[in-house]
């Protein structure tokens, strides 16, 4: 039988009668060391490779001379191979026979592409974005799918182009979204996760990752304040899905018959949330058949916090109309203002009316990691469920969103369907670790390893320092512009989160006496400056209207790479790009 190549290990029995050749030639290992340096030696040691039938000349016919040096144009010891990828295809890579060297060389090229991009991402002299309009991007590059395979050289060109035109979300001057930054340990974990390429539904196919999810969710529940980390939870594809899970479980808790009989078996339900809530609350209600009209928005104060008095009033009104209140979603860190609803007051009302209390902490939940700022979530321990997105303030690579539920077993009862081809009841291990039946998904991506590995690398104190730094930078920005000429704050007082909301008034708008004209022209300022930011590629920050307020900048800081100098740059760049407006 032909050798399995580099990946051929000793069989489990180690018997003399094995038909499988158990080794790869020493000549290959020497060649591997030539072009991978220490990598080849480490792989050799790791896999205990020995002599084999395959000859170095056979491999050389496929991939070229193993002694050929690289073309770095500078002194080095890398001895990188010069493979002609224009003559190679994906079928020349593993599991192809003798595809070992081509595979490692190709992947090394891909790693080089990624490493170059990573280094540029942290270089302030590089652009945050190489912006092209959609039609330009379509015309400049060939993105079409063909019937015939492309060469590996074309594939590498595609890899470079994909990154070239992507946003450098790890760039210190990228402030556009709530999820920014690029963590090296998290990135390494994501690479390893893709290498494992497994599914989270059962312990038998993801033993390590299932246990890590169990351990991490328990730790997160402890931080929330639930005794001994009791409860349940899982990682889902983003905060919107986590919020929908919470609504689903809350409905099941009150009306379990809906699972089998549908919404016709329940009275008309009512959910309550702040008028500044994330749009996913209404989307969840629509998806679950509850309806967006059944989501009652509660007034927020001038800082964006839910008003408990209005919540109580609207609950009483709903009951009088024959609706059954079943769910209240309080927000810990609203998307625009970064406001924290008064959780203890909301909890009192929910207890009084026997309503499920959910906390959407997708944006602000990570402040629980900070001893200085966790008071902003006082009362979260009284909630029935919580959404927490580590891919935001903790800079875990996308995606990383957890739903935490205080009552153990409720998610399982709500969602399980006992699929016998996955969740056999006579397995030889504890079935409690088969988590797939409590999820809506069957296939579930491994999102846990990057968070767990980063937590190991940083410790809780490391995350705390990272979060505190971001909040210090937002305080610095607020103090810098609150009394600066040409700036107006959207609301009074220092923000609770890293959200700093402001208008920039260019000289052409600043001194207008006609209020309506001033308002009309101010509405156009932020979009124009944002467009210029992207065209120049210097920085990115978001903008939006809110209620009756015209477009304003919403600066958020979650990027650990950002510094005071980057905040200074942002202010100066806004003024430079908007001075002629």
TrEMBL record:
EC number per UniProt: 4.1.1.15
Region named Disordered: 1-23
Gene3D superfamilies recorded: 3.90.1150.170, Type I PLP-dependent aspartate aminotransferase-like (Major domain)
GO biological process: gamma-aminobutyrate shunt; gamma-aminobutyric acid biosynthetic process
Any one annotated GO CC term: Golgi membrane
Cofactor: pyridoxal 5'-phosphate
Modified residues (N6-(pyridoxal phosphate)lysine): 392
Cellular localisation: Cytoplasm, Cytosol; Cytoplasmic vesicle; Golgi apparatus membrane; Presynaptic cell membrane
InterPro entries: PyrdxlP-dep_de-COase (IPR002129), PyrdxlP-dep_Trfase (IPR015424), PyrdxlP-dep_Trfase_major (IPR015421)
GO molecular-function term, one example from the UniProt record: glutamate decarboxylase activity
Root EC class: lyase
Hydrolase keyword on record: no
Domain of life: Eukaryota
Membrane-topology annotation of the record: Peripheral membrane protein; Lipid-anchor
This protein's UniProt keywords: Cell membrane, Cell projection, Cytoplasmic vesicle, Decarboxylase, Golgi apparatus, Lipoprotein, Lyase, Membrane, Palmitate, Pyridoxal phosphate, Synapse
Subunit and interaction comment: Homodimer.
Function in brief: Catalyzes the production of GABA.
Family: Belongs to the group II decarboxylase family.
Designated name of the protein: Glutamate decarboxylase 2
Source organism per UniProt: Aldrovandia affinis
Lineage of source species: Eukaryota, Metazoa, Chordata, Craniata, Vertebrata
């Amino acid at each position: 039988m032909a050798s399995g190549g580099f990946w051929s290990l000793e069989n489990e029995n180690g018997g003399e009668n094995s038909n499988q050749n158990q080794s790869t030639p020493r000549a290959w290992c020497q060649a591997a060391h030539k072009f991978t340096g220490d990598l080849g030696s480490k792989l050799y040691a790791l896999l205990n490779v020995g002599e084999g039938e395959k000859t170095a000349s056979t491999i050389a016919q496929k991939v070229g001379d193993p002694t050929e040096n690289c073309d770095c144009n500078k002194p080095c010891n890398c001895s990188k191979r010069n493979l002609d990828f224009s003559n190679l295809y994906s079928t020349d890579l593993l599991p192809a026979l003798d595809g070992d060297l081509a595979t490692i060389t190709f992947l090394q090229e891909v790693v080089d592409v990624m490493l170059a991009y990573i280094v540029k991402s942290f270089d302030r002299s590089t652009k945050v974005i190489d912006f092209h309009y959609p039609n330009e991007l379509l015309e400049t590059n060939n993105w079409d799918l063909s019937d015939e395979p492309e060469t590996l050289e074309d594939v590498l060109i595609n890899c470079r182009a994909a990154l070239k035109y992507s946003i450098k979300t790890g760039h210190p001057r990228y402030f556009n979204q709530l999820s920014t930054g690029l963590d090296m340990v998290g990135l390494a974990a994501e690479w390893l996760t893709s290498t494992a390429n497994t599914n989270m539904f059962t312990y038998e196919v993801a033993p390590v990752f299932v246990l890590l999810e169990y351990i991490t969710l328990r730790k997160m529940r402890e931080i929330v304040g639930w005794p001994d980390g009791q409860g349940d939870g899982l990682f889902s594809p983003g905060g919107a899905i986590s919020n929908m899970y919470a609504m689903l479980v809350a409905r099941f808790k009150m009306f379990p018959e809906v699972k089998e009989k549908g919404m016709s078996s329940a009275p008309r339900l009512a959910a309550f949330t702040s008028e500044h809530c994330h749009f996913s609350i209404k989307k969840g209600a629509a998806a679950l058949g509850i309806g967006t009209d059944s989501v009652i928005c509660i007034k927020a104060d001038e800082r964006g916090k839910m008003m408990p008095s209005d919540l109580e009033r609207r609950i009483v009104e709903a009951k009088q109309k024959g609706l059954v209140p079943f769910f209240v979603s309080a927000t810990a860190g609203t998307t625009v203002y970064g406001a924290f609803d008064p959780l203890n007051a909301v909890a009192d009302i929910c207890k009084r009316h026997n309503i499920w209390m959910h906390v959407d902490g997708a944006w602000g939940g990570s402040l629980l990691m900070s001893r200085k700022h966790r008071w902003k979530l006082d009362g979260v321990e009284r909630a029935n469920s919580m959404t927490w997105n580590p891919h935001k303030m903790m800079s875990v690579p996308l995606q990383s969103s957890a739903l935490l539920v205080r009552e153990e077993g409720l998610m399982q009862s709500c969602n399980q369907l006992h699929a016998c081809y996955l969740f056999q009841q006579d397995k030889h291990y504890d079935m409690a670790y088969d988590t797939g039946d409590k999820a809506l998904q069957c296939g579930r991506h491994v999102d846990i390893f990057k968070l767990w590995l980063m937590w190991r690398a940083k410790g809780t104190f490391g995350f705390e320092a990272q979060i505190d730094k971001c909040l210090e930078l937002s305080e610095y920005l607020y103090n810098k512009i609150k009394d600066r000429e040409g700036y107006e704050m959207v609301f009074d007082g220092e923000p609770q989160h890293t959200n700093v909301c402001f208008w920039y008034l260019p000289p052409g708008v600043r001194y207008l006496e006609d209020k309506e004209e001033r308002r009309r022209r101010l509405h156009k300022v932020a979009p124009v400056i944002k467009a210029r930011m992207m065209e120049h590629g210097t920085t990115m920050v978001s903008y939006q209207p809110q209620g009756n307020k015209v477009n304003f900048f919403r600066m958020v800081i979650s990027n650990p790479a950002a510094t005071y100098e980057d905040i200074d740059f942002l202010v100066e760049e806004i003024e430079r790009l908007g001075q002629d407006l």
